């Protein structure tokens, strides 16, 4: 599985040559990026979603992106984000932040 940049902020998730999803990485104030509109094909299970977040985190490290943000809309996503070392940044907005470690 890998990430392919399609447009300015649009990225596709691919497995081989097959598109399995897409998402946007939108710039935010601290030079980080907010993950928005993440969509994956129906055959991706919970473990696959976990792998996708790991892939996006690795991509952020490779591209020198200092932080990733996600707005959560479900308790199950909150759990997944917490598992991936995201920290709850804003309780009211349910905004989570992952600080990319570039060491």
Describe the protein's architecture and organization.
There is one protein chain. With 103 residues, the chain is of the alpha+beta class. The longest helix is centred in the middle third of the chain and has 17 residues, at 46-62. The two termini are 25 Å apart. It is built from 2 helices and 7 strands, in the order E-E-E-E-H-E-H-E-E. A 7-stranded mixed β-sheet has the order 1-2-3-4-5-7-6, with helices on one face. The protein has one domain (2-99): 3-Layer(aba) Sandwich (Aminopeptidase).
Tell me the radius of gyration: 13 Å
Distance between the termini: 25 Å
What's the pLDDT, averaged over the residues? 92
CATH C-level label: Alpha Beta
**Spatial strand arrangement across the major sheet:** 1-2-3-4-5-7-6
* Poorly predicted segments: none
- CATH-defined topology: Aminopeptidase
Order of helices and strands: EEEEHEHEE
Structural class: alpha+beta
Overall shape: globular
Tags for this model:
single chain; alpha+beta; Aminopeptidase; 2 helices; GNAT family N-acetyltransferase
Please outline the helices and strands.
Layout: E1 2-5, E2 10-15, E3 18-27, E4 33-40, H1 46-62, E5 67-71, H2 75-83, E6 87-90, E7 95-99
Parallel strand pairs: 4-5
Antiparallel strand pairs: 1-2, 2-3, 3-4, 5-7, 6-7
């Amino acid at each position: 599985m890998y990430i392919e940049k399609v447009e300015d902020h649009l990225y596709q998730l691919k497995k081989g040559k097959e598109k399995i999803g897409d998402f946007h990485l939108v710039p935010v104030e601290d030079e980080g990026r907010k993950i928005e509109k993440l969509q994956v094909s129906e055959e991706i299970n919970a473990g696959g979603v976990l792998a996708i977040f790991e892939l996006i985190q690795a991509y952020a490290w490779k591209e020198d992106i200092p932080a990733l943000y996600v707005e959560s809309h479900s308790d199950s996503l909150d759990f997944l984000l917490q598992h991936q070392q995201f920290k709850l940044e804003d309780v009211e907005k349910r905004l989570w932040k992952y600080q990319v470690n570039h060491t």
